[in-house]
């Protein structure tokens, strides 16, 4: 195979995961070719409805967060989650979530206290993906090949040679890249070609999803509008998401355990039961999809120079919004590692960290989602027949279901733990110490500077977020100006490793910062902490660059 390359990275799939990887990679100076089977700007799926806080933090760094924040539902539209006997029925409980106009300032609701520069954003994929696409396509270094499909690839020690098929002309072309990344969804051809398989639980729940236009529905809704409506009644339980805040809605009909086949369920009647409307109510079906919630994780995420991310690497029920968001986290983790290698300061072995970091997290998060799905299935099966009755028993049943619904679901819709609590505890490029990272749940976590954790957020005196100040590569937070760091600065310069030294007044930081020095990676995870630098700065830098990734450096005394 030749040694010249047409592109640095060939990305298969231009959905949110592939686009996120591409925009991050070109920011590092790489050439990226995106291959997508759809036409340019072809409308995407409406399945995804939520951009997590961690994702928005990274989009902020990439310069696209404001564009996304200004899109989606109207700025004054509440992002509440409401539980009712039907969408138009009696309210059981409500989880208050600010709309985007008050998103940065509101203190009402369970997610408004989070320590972050970028709170979550409720936006459907039909608004999200075009913004990411337009932003990415305009970047220098991007080549976008629409209506193109990966047919095959082969790789050697220096690159990957891919055969691409033009779906309109049926002509093939060969393209050579240094790396290939499969962001091509649950049926990923890249995953299959690299010989990885999905393992886990193949069926957790089945869902009929219908995207509808119903101009008369909003006028029937009692009380304050909401972003998400849970319909809880003995006839049919389902979920409705507001798409444009006016006339378009996404209706999820959660099939009962006794309904194993999609075609045995009357879609129209199920929708009417979820909405709480009669046979004369008019609506239009824009699109529909039947899908199965699963918990499946690929046996491997990498084969030498070929990688997979997002749904290509893992599939699970979309609770807590962590399908797409976990995929984007995969992509951005891989991008900073691959960027280091392509820039020349990272050793090839640095890429070992991708599987070592992301695969265990995928297992953790998928179990959280699966466990929550099981609880929701049980809750839907336990709706009492008299929940809509206008008597004491009915009112008591609604109060009881409301309490249970809030306690169960506030952790999913305000999932602080999944956003900030996960950590990398098996990475070959993190220097661990004797302290164990704090446990986290879907809804809660403890901020910590244990290596592998997310660096706790705080605002700098100049008004910037800590994350705004993180440089490419690594940033050393120095909380004691008397501690010498010149040995690390010199070792980093000699190796070409990007290093930013940021002096911080100890009074300005959260209590979790208990050490004089904290080394933070560009992806916000802590690589090391201590009160003095390790003695052998050169060996330390070599480890951080992946040159000693197979034998991690022990924590210095």
Question: Your description of this structure?
Answer:
The protein is an alpha/beta fold. Among the domains are: 7-70 and 122-197 and 296-368, 3-Layer(bba) Sandwich (FAD/NAD(P)-binding domain), CATH 3.50.50; 422-544, Glutaredoxin (3-Layer(aba) Sandwich), CATH 3.40.30.120. It is 27% helix and 23% strand. The chain has helices at 16-26, 53-62, 65-69, 125-137, 189-193, 267-275, 324-343, 352-381, 392-413, 416-420, 466-469, 486-495, 537-544, and strands at 7-12, 32-36, 50-51, 81-84, 91-95, 121-122, 142-146, 148-155, 160-166, 172-182, 198-213, 228-231, 238-242, 248-254, 284-298, 302-303, 306-308, 314-316, 474-478, 499-503, 517-521, 526-530. The strands form 4 sheets. Strands 1, 2, 7, 8, 9, 10, 16 and 17 form an 8-stranded mixed β-sheet that branches. The chain has an 8-stranded mixed β-sheet with strand order 5-4-12-13-14-11-15-18. It has a 4-stranded mixed β-sheet with strand order 20-19-21-22, with helices on one face. Residues 549-557 have low confidence and may be disordered.
